[in-house]
Structures
1.
Amino acid sequence: RGGVEVRTGVRISAIRHQATGLSLETTAGTLTARHVLLASGGARPGMELAVRLGHSIAPLAPSLFTFRVPHGLPHDLAGISVDAGIVALPAARLKEQGPVLITHQGLSGPAVIRLSAWAARWLAQRKHVAEITVNWTGRPLSDVRAVLAEHRTRHAARLVQGDVAIPMPARLWAFICGASGIPLDRRWAHVSRNEQETLTANLTAHTFHVRGMSPFNEEFVTCGGIPLKEVDLLTMESRRTPGLHFAGEMLDVDGLTGGFNFQWAWTSAWHAAQAITSAG
């Protein structure tokens, strides 16, 4: 209805700039156009077309993904979450706070996914192998230490693993107690100083080894792409090839979760379309 012709099953092998516009070499023959909009996402074939026209590419890396933790988290904890955890990458000096979800493969949730965005290139350089810490409580170590000390005094006769002293799912509490060397039959009165200190440490900085992303390649967005300095952001037109425009993940823009990447795709495409139709 809008006079748009859609061609499917056509692959573009090259785009060339000519005096009369742009020439596209495709599997359906040669096409010519005054304007071309590249919006092929973070896929390398689209990036390569831009490179041949003089553009550079900021290193590509997956972003917004979950962490695969093959060891240290029992499968029966899958589905358990905390609302205000803190996930940190100590070596990168990065951390994020928010909901943390245990999955069959490792760790997910907003805090993990946001952390993967800030550390996207750092993690990619290390093949997504890293050490993380999880603060299941979202509170400082000193606060948790004080809470446990008071709880131990008040409830000395209770079994530790069945007595959740810090608000969290009971199964997660029992798991952390076990990981801290506190057996099922241990009562608060008989917890040693070392055991209590280990429990405090695991509640506030439980260490896990990340060994890759989700095995199903579920990352939501690609970090990297064409640097913004190479594009006129009012028209999304290339500063190196007149008539060539970009939108979405083709450019080096990636946002956090919450719809920001969708909004960038739509907004950049709208600006490109306005510029193209105005130019005629």
Note: The chain has a mean pLDDT of 93.
2.
Amino acid sequence: MNARIDLAQLKQRIACIPAVRPESRASEGRLSTGLPPVDAYLGTAAAPLGAVHEIAGNGGDEEQGAAGAGFLALVLKASVPTGWVVWVTQEGDLYAPGLAAFGLDLRRLILVSARRDAEVCWALEEALRSRSLAAAVAEVGVLSLNATRRLQLAAEQAGIPCFLLRRWRTKELARQQRAQPIAAVTRWRISPQPQPRVSDQATMPELGPVHWRLDLWRCRNAAAASWIMEFDHAEQRVTAFPVPVAAALADRSISPAPAAEPEAERATATLLRFG
């Protein structure tokens, strides 16, 4: 009963926020990460901002989602620098100072707590349909294709980006959900990378720049791509460079061997006769 009262009050508060004018909707914009090489690639794919975008970790970060949350903070800062952002959580372990370190203004956040994945999807869809927000974010584990289709439709109609930060509590759940098809325009995999050793005198490497591998695993109208990203907290500088990948394999038919020349045939016959 208390949960229903809280949700009702939240809906009233969101309804009181002035709606965004239609001409300034994010549906006309493009997804941006703040990284020129990545944004140039997304520009060629014309990846819309007002859509569903999935972000997940790799390995152990599939459960914690720390690298994914940091990357998401950079994306929010670059794509929607102003306006309210709803962030739906289940665990209550969102680390605000970490988000602030990546440049996200915490005063813009509206935190919503849910108990199950189904409640997360419901709250996220309600937030998208409010048309008073700049973006909607949800930490979610289990998702169905139909649920993401509803979210994609709501995001397109409202012109609001919907970011799904995937968090899986067990390896089995991660294995089941990792490659499941969902209605997302982009699907990202963020992997922490070891920091390169600059000098033997570096005594506290953990305070140095953050290094991540960004894998654009799926993207509508574009092929998969990867980048190595570096974020310097001290100078608030972020850079990235592409990771070269091998060319895709292609099926090729086996062509018949070319016919032997007459001189070669005569020489072979001579060797067989006198060999």
Note: Strands lie at 52-57, 85-89, 109-113, 135-140, 162-166, 186-192, 210-219, 225-232, 237-242.
3.
Amino acid sequence: MLAAAAGTVITKTRGENSWRGMEIIIRHAPEDTGLPVWIYTQYAHFDAMPAVEVGERVKMGQKLGPTGNSGQGKTPGVQSSKRRPAIHFAIWYSTRPQYVIVSNQLKVIPVDGWWMDPNALYRGKLPFDTAALKALPEAEKKVPIPVMLEDGTTVPAGSKVVWPYACEKR
């Protein structure tokens, strides 16, 4: 998994009692993404604990760790054996940089925060919520997803955000 944008790691959890398993959350300032809001990206189900540390600044496209299958299944305390290795990638946004960590629930809550449709991150402009994106005219719904190739090249060049997986050029 790759960092979708430059930012600062704000949580890193083993998640033994979580469906999400090993996860990290990165906070991205407006200058990191080019958006007029603070973004929080969550990456979960790592196969191994990421080497990055809380407080560490990461670069866009920096390798965070291998995708995996960590996290509980439906039976408490038992890892899912049916879920394929995958990423759990979630995004929140806020106009304010402050956040709260609810440690007993392993949650980060951005102050005045809202869930962001991942397509909105790549679209790069308002609206950010799913319902408003669905209501857009068809011509405005097409969202090219910037990627980082395995050699570190971004497509298109100059992107401030990328898909959280490296891509292979064919």
Note: Residues 6 and 32 are 5 Å apart (CA to CA).
4.
Amino acid sequence: MSVPGGIRAKLMLALVAIIGGALAGAFLIVVPSLERRLVDAKLEILERDTASTASAIVANDIADEPDAIASLGAAFGARIVLYDVVEGPSLAVLVDTANPELTAGMERDPIALAALEGVSARGRVTRGGTQYAEVATQLLTGEVLLLSGSLTDQLSTV
């Protein structure tokens, strides 16, 4: 099969293929790396905020004060969920700064459950079609504290 237009058309097709291949290669290398760095940056911010929140909750003994915990969540721009560890071991939600409709299923959050196995855990979860970065830590008083922040802005940047 011959390409109509002669040598110029062949050179143009070759140039388009070379440039397209280079752009596709760059996209496949840069995008996952950028996404990973942005998500890691969000997780590091949440880890720092989790440490501050845990200190504030334990030092001020506000585990049973939802309004105080909600103000901490507003200050950090994150959803805060405080869990009680119950038999099993499993979790029961004590305080959730999100809407009550969004609390369903939070007792099975994988990051919070992972914090039961160690001191803290961090990761990425999807709920309701939205991705979240989460950091959970077990408090000295036995409860588990989870901070969750949406990754919508980071992923839209990518």
Note: Helices lie at 6-60, 66-76, 110-117, 152-157.
